[in-house]
Structures are given as structure tokens and as C-alpha cells.
Amino acid sequence: MAVFRSGLLVLTTPLTSLAPRLAPILSSAARLVNHTLYVHLQPGMSLGGSAQPQSSPVQATFEVIDFITHLYAGADVHRHLDVRILLTNIRTKSCLPPLPTSVQNLAHPPEVVLTDFQTLDGSQYNPAKQQLERYATSCYSCCPQLSSVLLYPDYGPAEPPVGSLGVHLPSTIRPTSPVARSAKQPVRGHRRGAVGGTFDRLHNAHKVLLSVACILAREQLVVGVADKELLKSKLLPELLQPYTERVEHLSEFLVDIKPSLTFDIIPLLDPYGPAGSDPSLEFLVVSEETYRGGMAVNRFRLENDLEELTLYQIQLLKDLNHKENEEDKVSSSSFRQQMLGNLLRPPYKRPELPPGFYVIGLTGISGSGKSSVAQRLKGLGAYIIDSDHLGHRAYAPGGPAYQPVVEAFGTDILHKDGIINRKVLGSRVFGNKKQLKILTDIMWPVIAKLAREEMDQAMAEGKRVCVIDAAMLLEAGWQNMVHEVWTVVIPETEAIRRIVERDGLSEAAAQSRLQSQMSGQQLVDQSHVVLSTMWEPHVTQRQVEKAWALLQKRISEAPSGP
After folding, report:
1. Residue partners of 416: CB distance under 8 A and separation at least 6
2. CA distance 67 to 73
3. What is the 8-class DSSP label of residue 367?
4. Whose CA is closest to 542, among 362, 376, 410?
5. Structure confidence by residue, pLDDT tens digits, 307-348
6. pTM greater than the 0.85 cutoff
7. 344-372 average pLDDT score
8. 402 vs 461: CA distance, rounded Å
9. Helix H or strand E segment including 12
10. Which among 360, 323, 269 has a CA at the least distance from the CA of 554?
């Protein structure tokens, strides 16, 4: 059966009966669609009659919101799919006017329309498929050659398992009072509200938060996107998507799911954002984790003579497949951890190097644990070239850099035995850009030449992978010698602690050393693979083994010869 890039799934089964069948329905859809899957809820609609069905409003109840969460949670096992539940026909109690008659444009026009609707004989019944196609094109912009598939009976029996009817779904919105509420209770709408977050690599937990906010808002939704200072405390901030990229994905998703709303997407630069100061806002959607922040926003508003916002606290989505050191909720932090060791951009082509010989440039800020990663790679079979060791060789009497350095900086940088005193030389160039450039103009070409000689030695020994371990790899321009740049990252505070402990420097001196280097972010921006040593040694080892295994796969699949 053909596989489509984008699809529209029209769900017609009543929600209480649909919930237990949802997993196999999503699995069937995931076999047919490989990128974007839109979902349209129209419970109770029939495709078996003679009349063409029309889209009708679905009242937003707590049951509907809980089902939306259930669907996004179920879709999390199909992470290749960008699932988007369309909310145009889902209306709050205070907002049930007729649905718009115009066709809604979608960012990725569906190439196929799918449905859970069950024909009597379970066949791909043409009249039902024609009704489905007409219904889809009357609601949304679809590809001209729209295909249609009736998923039943592929997703399972007509009747759900015994005892699963009326399954009670977990509450998405945490109740504000101990009094039990009915699942059928309508949700109250508001004119304007707000929601905030980092929204890195928009995932299904984000989509639940945003969907609830979109359902609650009738006119406008203010969306704060964390930036700058608010990102510093994030795990692996170097791997965060840039602000503009996060906003682009967020905007596309929001306009797709509820185009009738006005969206005001703004950078969030402090914990309060517009929620703390905008008098026209009526509600704020928060997660279990940010509820205390929502309470703080309301205290801030009261202090400034503004009315409190109605807080809607959304339960977190659990990640049932999280690994060691990852959070047990669906989170961007875990996604960034899972990126460690993966190839982030295509390798450089190096036709000047012999086929079958692969060169990695390994770098990282001081204290990042770069050398320990080099040793782990050595244990896996890599040939390691230590640029610090090459630097020592170059400085040594008779070495290729000895005479040029002495001529440039004078004999007062020498010990009595004629060896260059690197501490004296370091104090001469530290903080003096002109003097430092004189030194690097001498040293970097010499070290690069020695590294190439080492590479020749590695090839002579039959090594397939060579790793150049160099803190200044990118500053020196040595990336033009390698196929891939691998960077080891660590929080700056941890790097300072390690430098102080290892080198006996003061915190200020350690900070100064880091400021003289490229930042972790600058390194990552030019890297192919990122690793981190911030967890236990066995976690680092697992990362390195993963990166090595993926590298071996790339090498084996690379075309041999020119």
C-alpha cells in the first residue's frame, strides 16, 4: 500500500467507544502517513447514508479535552508523525455559532483521508469513500489527487474489548475544587488568555498545553516563548532550537489547529511576561511544573492592582520509554539528551584523503571532559592525535616552532636550560590579542603539519578512524582537515569547578580562561556530533559507544573511491 507524506484522519466513533480503540487506529494511520497527520473529530457522523454529511460543532467538554490528551499521548509512540488535532469545530459553551463555510487551508495539504468509520462488510466501500473525500475537501484544503482509506477492519474488531466501554480517561485539567465534575460538563470559554513555554522541538505534551489554551480562548491567545536569560538553566541549552525556528514551528501549528484565533507570539524574557502586566488577559494555562509560577504571576498582578487570572493546570504526559537520566515525562530535555551522539548535519567531503580513512575533530571548552572522551574512542579502536602533545613537541628545543617563537618573543621566555617557559610565554600573550595572534600564527600551522604526519602514521598502521583532540580546533581552522567535528559540552559552572579542582586556579581565573575560548554554543553551531560528560562515567561511555556505532555505519555506507 502507498505511503503518504500528509494525511487527514476523520474520527466518527463516539469518544467513549473510541478511546479503547485509539492505539490500533493510530498504528494503522502511522503505516500510511509518514510526516503530518491531521485529526478531525466528528463523533457520530455516518458515511453510510445517501445525504452528504456536513461538519457540525462539537461542544468542548472535559471529556473532549481528556480525549485530545489521550490521543496525543497515544501518538507519542509514533514520533516520526507530526500529529495535529484540528479544533475549528470544537466550541466552548459560550461560543457555538455556525461553523465557517469556507475551506480551511492547512500547512501540509492532506494527500490521503482516513477514517475509523465501519462499513457493514468491512470492505473499501466506494460510496463511503466518496462521501469521505467530499467531506474532507468541503472542510480542508487537500491535494487535488486525494486518496481515501477506510481503516476498519485493519485496526481491529468492531467491538472493543469487554469492559473497555466507558473507559475513564485521566483528567487533563486538574480540578480546582474537590467536588467531582462530570466528564460531560462544558468547558467555559474566555476572550483572551495566555500560555508560555520554551517550545523546543514541539512535541505532544506541548500540543496538549497549546490545544487546551486554544479551546479556552475565543478571540486571542498570547504565547510567550522563553528566550535569552530564561534558557540558561535549561539542560543542554546548546542544542535548543534558535528562537526564530521555535516560533516558526509554533506559529504553523497554532494557525493549523485554530485559524480563527489571533495569536500574539512574543519572547518571554522574565518569569512573568505579559501575563503579569496585561489587564485584558483572563486566563493562563500552566503545567504541573509551572503551576507555582502561575501563582506567582497572580500575586504579581494583585500587587499591581490587576485582577487574578483563572489558572488551568494541565497534567504532564508520561514518557513510558524514558531512559536512565531522562525525565519520566514527555519533555524537550529528554529529546535533547537523545540527540547526543547523533549526526546533526552532513559530514564534510574530503576527497583529498584516502577512501576508507575517516578523520574526526574532537573539541570542547576547557574542563568539558574532551580528553576522557578521546580515551574512550581510543578504547573503541580510534587513533588519537593529541594536539597538546604536538604543541609540546613543536616548542621543544630543535622543534619546528622553537626558533620562530624565541625570535618573536625574546630569550627571556626561556628557562636556564633553554627550554621555553610556557608559563612566562602564556602571561605574555594572555589578554593581549596582538601578541596572541603572533603566537598562534606561528604555532597553528606547525601543529597542523605535525597532525598530518600523524595521520600518515595512522594510515600506515591500518587505522580507519583518526581523532584529532584539539581545544582550539575551530579557532585554528583545522576543521578543513576532518570529516566531522565532535564537540563535548558541559555547563559552564561545572567546567569552572573542574578547572579549579584540576589546575588549582581561582574561580575568576577559570572564568577568564573560558571567556578567552569559543563558547560551547559557538562550537556546537559548527559541530556534526555533540556529546556530554555531565553524568556518570557509564552514561558517557554509552554515549560514545552510540556515536561510534553510528559512525561505523556511516563509514560502511559511504561510497568508496572518487
Report:
1. none
2. 10
3. T
4. 376
5. 999 999 999 888 877 887 788 889 999 999 999 999 999 999
6. yes
7. 95
8. 29
9. none
10. 360
Nearest to 498 by CA among 349, 297, 330, 364: 364
- Structure confidence by residue, pLDDT tens digits, 109-134: 999 999 999 887 666 668 899 999 99
Map residue 85 onto helix, strand or coil. Answer: strand
With CA atoms as reference, report the closest residue to 270 among 220, 213, 225: 225
From 30-44, 80-94, 260-274, the region with the lowest mean pLDDT: 80-94
User: What letter does residue 359 receive in the DSSP assignment?
Assistant: E
pLDDT-based confidence at residue 164 (cuts at 50, 70, 90): very low
Distance from C-alpha of 334 to C-alpha of 239, rounded to nearest angstrom: 11
DSSP assignment of 447-486: HHHHHHHHHHHHHHTT-SEEEEE-TTTTTTTGGGG-SEEE
DSSP states of 262-320: EEEEEEE-SSSGGGGT-TT--EEEEETTTHHHHHHHHHHHHHTT-PPPEEEEEPPPB-T
Specify the DSSP class assigned to residue 240: S
Rounded Cα distance between 439 and 345, Å, is: 33
**Closest of 177, 212, 227 to residue 283, by C-alpha:** 212
Beta strand 190-197 with 217-226 is parallel
pLDDT for the residue numbered 93: 74
Residue among 165, 185, 160 nearest 173 (CA)? 185
Report the 10 Å Cβ neighbour count for 480: 11
Q: What angle do CA 180, 182, 184 make, to 5 degrees?
A: 165
pLDDT tens string 266-314: 999 999 999 999 999 999 999 999 999 999 999 999 999 999 999 999 9
* Residue 530 main-chain phi, psi, to 5 deg: -120, 140
Q: What is the pLDDT of residue 118?
A: 87
Nearest to 250 by CA among 213, 207, 219: 207
